[in-house]
Amino acid sequence: MKMTAVELIVGLKVPDNTAITAFNTLQNIGYKQLKKLEKCDYYKFHITEDADKFRERISKTDILINANKHKFSFSIGNNQDTGENYKKVNILVQELDNPEALLTTLRERLGFNEITKLEKGILWALSFDKNADAKNTAKDIAKNLLMNENYQKFKVIE
User: Fold this and answer.
1) CA–CA separation, 9 vs 76, rounded Å?
2) Fewer CB in 10 Å around end: N or C, the chain?
3) 88 near 156, Cβ under 8 Å?
4) Other CB atoms closer than 10 Å to residue 102's CB: what's the count?
5) Which CATH number goes with the domain that contains 54?
6) What b/e readout covers 20-48, taking b as 16+ CB neighbours within 10 angstroms?
7) Domain extent at residue 132
8) Rounded to an integer, what is the distance from CA 28 to the centroid of its chain?
């Protein structure tokens, strides 16, 4: 049985108020080299099915993606050239507990029996001045504002 991992990134089509508030707060507490902050939901599915078939099915699942308000992608896009001279760092914040309820719903109610494991989190994309120490500053921001170490963990997604 071949295992495959499929990532799904889901964001709002309209500006995200949480990201806007976090960005303004970070600017106000001194992170002036931060130029842009974006927030998306992140899912990583470990599956036993063909990845292309799974992507087609999961992208139509309304409990993850509401076509009226969400946009989605199957890649993080770390090195996308946006035409801006910014350094981009992606931080994934996850709960320490596994998302068992969502996994159960996907398997039992929606028939996604091919999912063997599910990872879920919030993906923050931080864009900094090109001269900034982006990775270390992003880690500092994650520890200070984007996560609560009592019940969450974070990692830099390269």
Assistant:
1) 7
2) N
3) no
4) 15
5) 3.30.1280.10
6) eebbeebeeeebebbbebbbbbbbbbebe
7) 4-157
8) 24
pTM listed for this prediction = 0.91
Please state the length of the chain.
Answer: 158
For residue 63, which of 127, 106, 111 has the smallest C-alpha distance?
Answer: 106
Tokens, residue 156: 């830099």
pLDDT digits over 16-48, tens only? 999 999 999 999 999 999 999 999 999 999 999
Supply angle C-alpha 24, 16, 37, rounded to 5: 50
Q: Across residues 125-140, what is the average pLDDT?
A: 94
Residue 38 is given by DSSP the state: E
Using CA atoms, how far apart are residues 76 and 78, in angstroms rounded to an integer?
A: 6
Cα gap 62→43, rounded to integer Å: 14
Please list the alpha-helical segments (H only) found in the chain: 17-28, 51-58, 100-104, 134-141
Which residues, 6 or more positions from 65, have their beta carbon under 8 angstroms from its beta carbon? 10, 59, 72
Per the structure block, which two tokens stand in for 77?
Answer: 């896009």
Structural domains in the chain (count): 1
